[in-house]
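[scheduler] slot 2 assigned
[scheduler] job type: sequence-to-structure, two independent chains
[scheduler] chain ordering preserved from manifest
[runner] begin chain α
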Amino acid sequence: MLTTNTVLLNQEDGVATITLNRPEFMNAMTNELMRGISQALEVVRSNEDIRVVILTGNGRGFCAGADLVQAAEPKKPATGASKQGDDFNAALRALMDCPVPTIARINGPAAGGGFGLALACDITVAAHSAFFVATFGPNLGIVPDMGATWSIPLRVGRARALGITLLGDRVSAEQALQWGMIWDAVEDSALDTRVAEIAAVLKRSSPSAVTRTRQTIDAAIHNIFSDQLDLEMTHQAVLIPKNMQAGAKAFLAKTTADFSGERG
């Protein structure tokens, strides 16, 4: 288990849970917290026993966005923005490049940069009491960041993305589900059970297949159809010899395939 002042990492039975741990500040993001996320994900990368990552927040919120106390501190604007961008963007890149599937467990408000953090995971599941809000433009006079300008329009389309980011209205968990912004919204009391169900499926999947599926889906944004067909076959050339026989046998026998934990 890795523990910093602001991030907890717990590993159990192949599942690593990364918990943002500033509950008194609704897990608002500081440079230290974002470095903690990067460090936790480095542990995940170096430990091939880990098959799934769950990202969540301690207390009553998932993440309130950037810590505005830190943001309001006097500093040279270019230097301060650059340092924050380095730590924040490094954590987002590490999350997007995680070698195993990632689940965002949204236990409460995901605001500002916390909104982007929630959508940077592969599967996002929210409690009914949770909500999402983009506070960037209406409140702070800045553009959305933490990858929000990439993930929100890809999930909900341009019209809704502009409404979300320009108006700053709250999007409930139920509305987020209806719009296809998240995978599931459940009663608060069922959140842990639902996340565990999803983790169990991902844990027994081939890490290599999961990673390559993510890469292929993301590539479809800019590929023409023919290029996408070629990319699919490039990945199949690796995965079919590795997994297909075991998968087919298990399917025919109505059992669960035991895929290797190899990530390549």
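[runner] end chain α
[runner] begin chain β
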Amino acid sequence: MSASKVRIAKDKAELVKSLVVGEGSDGVFPTYADAIAFAAALGSKRQRRSPLSNVSQRDPGAISVEIFISRGYDTLINLLAIVSTKNPKIISPKDPAAETQRLQIFEEYANGGLEILRDELRGAVDYTERITLLLMSERHRQDATGQYGFDLSRFL
């Protein structure tokens, strides 16, 4: 992956900021990349993909893909792309169009996951507690086939 960036929807920017530990925030995640990766995994788990209409230009702005790679999320980006397209050739490092498509899929799952988080966290004072409860309920939820899904608790 080259110097591409993962964009954040403008209407989710404040939520993303509140999810990250920092000034004026008792967030849950150490970085924006961690929050976005968690949201993408949640969006995938709940099969919710939402296209970005307006993109945030300010804090948080687009995040370099290199940050996601350095944190080990390139595997998540690639897996989401393969599952979505059912085409393993989408992870070709030599195809710039494939990279663009991978990042778009990742952004859409992240945006869908942020919509879920916005609904789940509405009215919550302590995001840590609410996200922990969300993870516990997801861990014990069976999908339609009666199998348990993957464990999102790795992100905490």
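[runner] end chain β
[qc] chain β: The longest helix spans residues 96-121.
[scheduler] slot 2 released
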